[in-house]
Write a structure and sequence with these properties.
Elements lengths: L1 H9 L6 H30 L7 H27 L4 H19 L6 H23 L4 H24 L6 H20 L3 H16 L7 H22 L2
Length: 236
């Protein structure tokens, strides 16, 4: 892993760091958007089972609308790289977990969230593969860092909304973030510690405070944007 870290930090001698980063991330992000759109479509379709109330009709309309946008883009991606279908197959077990919790009317379960995050991270790997034509150590590191970030967000949001009076979730959230920082230091990833620092601070400092849902969401968007920029810097 040391060689991979050295390589990624030295960068490509033939391209300026900023230009290379923008090109890589812009291309990958467009592919990731397609993958996530397909994931969202699958989730919407799975929610169509059962009655035909107004909310479900709205979901059906959204599924058709977004599906019409995603299908041509997905077809082009598969035509260019047919092996992308393997990433879709890898997502299926996680979609099945989501379907299970949806049937149980327990979509807010932690493991349902974790399965959805894992599926989205596979979508990120697909985006990397579409842009590079191969999966490298760097790709799996990015996927792992993203997974860890969003798992932390899941714990935090639960402690602020649904489980805000649940002491067990408080300690799960704090313990997770503490172990995350300790683990990153142990594997010699000091810059990654900085990427997660706001997540740790808000998980501890904001716990127990009453924040409007809108403000809570805006803070999470800002935190995610910070994390995104930190990953660009780390891998430039």
């Amino acid at each position: 892993m040391g060689d991979a870290k050295t390589t990624r930090r030295l960068g490509d001698a033939h391209h300026p760091v900023l230009a290379r980063s923008v090109r890589r991330w812009a291309f990958a992000d467009s592919r990731a958007a397609l993958c996530r759109l397909a994931c969202a479509l699958f989730g919407n379709v799975s929610a169509l089972d059962g009655g035909e109330n107004e909310a479900e009709r709205a979901v059906r309309a959204a599924a058709v609308r977004y599906g019409a946008i995603a299908a041509p883009a997905l077809a082009v991606s598969l035509w260019q790289r047919p092996t992308l279908v393997l990433f879709g197959l890898a997502m299926i077990p996680f979609f099945l977990v989501n379907t299970y919790y949806s049937k149980k009317k327990n979509e807010r379960a932690f493991w349902n969230d974790a399965a959805a995050i894992a599926a989205f991270c596979i979508g990120g790997l697909a985006a990397f593969y579409a842009g590079r034509g191969e999966l490298t150590v760097e790709a799996f590191e990015l996927a792992a860092f993203s997974f860890l970030f969003f798992i932390g967000s899941t714990f935090y949001v639960k402690t602020m909304i649904r489980e805000k009076k649940n002491e067990r979730y408080k300690w799960l959230s704090w313990g997770y973030h503490a172990l995350l920082i300790i683990g990153l230091i142990a594997i010699d990833e000091p810059f990654a510690v900085l990427a997660y620092a706001p997540s740790v601070i808000r998980a501890v400092y904001l716990y127990g405070k009453s924040l409007p849902i809108m403000k809570l969401g805006m803070l999470e968007i800002a935190n995610a944007a910070y994390f995104f920029i930190a990953m660009i810097v780390l891998y430039s």
